[in-house]
Amino acid sequence: DRYNFDKQLSSVTSIARKYDLEYYNQETILGGSSLGLSGYPTFNSPQQFGTYMVSQGFNLVSTANNHALDKGLKGIQNSRKFWNAQKGVLAQGTNSSQAEYDHLAMKVKGISLAFLSYTYGTNGITPQYPWEVNYYPGHEKEMLAKVSEAKKRVDLVIVAMHWGTEYAHEPNEEQKTLARK
């Protein structure tokens, strides 16, 4: 299959292209066409979308979100295989091993950075392994410890949180408190 995303995204990619760090949230799993491309309620998008975003310079990709487990562990494994093959790209939030869960650093133009990505949940789908998806509810202390450790080891720490109350335009008190920490 051939896809062309320029028409929908050229106004965004033209702005982002001038930066050394280009971040985006990959809201749907890139599990590969072998799992069947699908829409609501369990998404699986073509890996060509990721290829397109990387070709436009995006190098920080958050994969922790409520659709991370839409295609189960196999979807995450396929997605991680895709992201791991992308040179100069750090994808964080879903993992096919403990080692991937633990990895968080890269260098961009001589600056070392750690990128951490967490989600509030996965629409009721339970992971098979604790390292599969980076959850923050119930894991706040672990997350904050990773941030603290990263601060000691790198020049810059970036944390992407997939959270929010649906249809609310302001953060709630719990989110404000955790963000301050």
Pick out its properties.
single chain; 181 residues; 3-stranded parallel sheet
Polypeptide structure, described:
There is one protein chain. Strands 1-2-3 form a three-stranded parallel β-sheet, covered by helices on one side. Strands 4-5-6 form a three-stranded mixed β-sheet, covered by helices on one side. The protein has helices at 6-16, 47-55, 72-84, 98-102, 140-153, 173-180; strands at 23-25, 60-62, 90-92, 105-108, 111-119, 156-162. The longest helix has 14 residues, at 140-153. The protein is an alpha/beta fold. It is built from six helices and six strands, in the order H-E-H-E-H-E-H-E-E-H-E-H. The N and C termini lie far apart (45 Å). The model has no long low-confidence stretch (mean pLDDT 95). 33% of the residues lie in helices and 16% in strands.
